[in-house]
Amino acid sequence: MLIQFSMENFGPFADRATLNMAPIRSYKENPQSLLESGLKGVPHVLPSVLVYGPNASGKSTLVKAAGFMKEEVRKSFQRVRGDEIPVNPFLLATPEQFSAPCGMEMIFIAQDGIRYQYGFSVNATRVLREWLYAWPISQARTVFMRTWNELTKKYDYSPKIFGENILGFRKHWLEDVLENRLFLSVAAHKGGSESDDVSDVFPEEKSVNTRTNLKFIFDWFHLRLFPMFSLKSIPLKFSTKMIDDSEGKKYLLDWLKQGDLVWDDLVVESKIISFDKPLPIPAATEVTVGHMAGTSDGKGLNLQKVGFLAKRVQDETVIPFPSNLVSDGTRTWLTLGGAIQKILANGEIIFADEIEANLHHHLVRHLWSLFNDPATNPNKAQLVATTHNVGLLADPNLLRRDQVWLIDKNRKMASELFPLSDYSPRKGEYLLKPYLQGRFGGIPRLSRNVFPYAQGSDKT
What we know:
The chain is α+β, with helices and mostly antiparallel strands. The protein has 9 helices and 20 strands. It has a 7-stranded antiparallel sheet, with helices on one face. Strands 11-17-18-5-19-20 form a 6-stranded mixed sheet. Helix 5 crosses helix 6 (246-257). It is globular, with a radius of gyration of 24 Å.
């Protein structure tokens, strides 16, 4: 479970911005929706939050930042000496601020039930700091700290006997920790393993009071955290796998009917395309071509698409629909059907950008409710969603006040992330009207003065 996410000097966020998933204890509405963490210090966690803001305010960057952190953990071990780290500093900063490092940090509960605080500070050439703290009991323990020493041009490591708090630690891991690689990423792939499964590198034992198994931290980023840069970026494979199973297909057809999309059958159509010349791309690269999606190994494409069939009312003849007659909203809702089933089943943490894309308000509301109902979210999945769907603010019984966050630009054109609770909304308050009136910020600043021609100006 995610407890807190912080970022600094990334995209339009110049200063530190923190998204807190811990509920405000004085807020008593919808207590049944809270996720029990099993921890004394943070007994509950929010199942979902909505992030509002005008266009170009930085909402998408919040999702990109989570994706950047995940990919650094998963793949920075692949860099060779001299490769740059793809930082994205605030472009309107002063020269001094522009050269400041990019920082990322997450506080979360891994599969071993322990709270961890992991983060790093990097620039384009090196990791400046990297840290991991654990709470196996009530007090925090430093698992490792790595700090660049500008005087010695080397890293300082702590604790003094580095690795004493890491289960299965090997000194030779440090040989591959280049300046542009994260220690966690390198440790997860030592031993020559470049597969997604690192169980052959780390021991299978759970973390204990004295030592931490880094496998649980790596797996949390790799298998639990999923930033979705748009609903259209969700892999179709989750739904096509379900269509191949009779129960899975029934689930998806019922899922479509929730949107008044009454289809009678779904079929998976496959197509294999061979390249004349191989392309230098990794195996199993996700690709999308029109309405088809699949993978490529560089030698060709293995594509699939979903065919939609409906019965004609008069004689119940099953009619296949051409791809161009199936709406984007139908395709989005189908793709979400497979993905949401996987997310809820595995208790994953999703960062979703513009969750309302091509979807009716009632479908977005239904999607939101799946994460907030213990009956449909028994495995404690979480959703962080940016949105322009203000209709969700219209029902005071749908949202807790601490589930609403906003992003806006300050006078320096830097983005700021802040909770609705900063404005002390009352319990049960109707939030839609004050939000649209600008009481909370996070709305566009409109002016008719930018349209002189509409006012009869003679300017050319």
